Amino acid sequence: MDELGDTAERILQFIQQNPGCHLRKTKVMMHISLGTVQYHLDRLEKMGRITSTRLGLYKHYFPVGIFQENEKEILQVLGQETTREILMLIIERQAPTQTDIVSNVGISAASVNWHIRHLIKFKLIEEVKEGKYKRYQLRDREASSRYITMLMRNYYPNIWDKWSNRLAEIFLSLSKGDTE
Q: Which of 95, 55, 71 is nearest to 149 (CA)?
């Protein structure tokens, strides 16, 4: 097998520890030039050591053979601060409208719409029409909440620490709602 070299090996280890990370985040967190990171990511992908998926303008990198497609999608969402904030708001509020999301997250309706479309495409949330309003909720509350919490705890421990108490209260209330 081809010898990776120190930099490529460090980048591979970084991707294994931070699945779903994109090029610029890898550059910033590893303190390596953009060109060097891009070269090694491309090389690692051609060698079959990592794989990538694209979300909008970002290409996200994953170790090969570890994650199912839906897990990769959730990791991509969790890795993007605004999309993650919207998802957490939807989980917390259970069925907010676009207006609720705009006022709580502080971005334009068009931006919220872009993030919502991706969350729907990844089958994490669904749109429910209620009169003239559209509300957004987790698609499969139990399965989605389990995946989200497991992936967040394992791969985004800093975010997990920040959100764990809120998530615990939210998911406990969701499970109580199912039993009533």
A: 71
Enter the pTM of the model. 0.70
Residue 96: exposure state from Cβ atoms within 10 A (0-12, 13-18, ≥19): buried
CA angle 41, 118, 103 (to 5 degrees): 120
Q: Which amino acid is at 82?
A: T
Whose structure tokens read 């520890």?
Answer: 17
Distances (CA, A) of 172 to 2, 27, 84, 145, 176: 49, 38, 20, 11, 6
Considering Cα of 143, then 146, then 160, then 18, what sign does the dihedral take? negative
Find the helix or strand (DSSP H, E) in which 73 lies. Answer: helix 69-79
Over the stretch 6-43, which tens digit does the pLDDT of each residue have?
A: 999 999 999 998 898 899 999 999 999 999 999 999 99
Contact 103, 88 (CB under 8 A): no
β-sheet bridge partners, residue 60: 22, 53
- The structural domains of the chain, ordered by start, are 6-66 (1.10.10.10), 71-179 (1.10.10.10)
Q: What is the 3-state secondary structure (H, E, C) of 16-30?
A: HHCCCEEHHHHHHHH
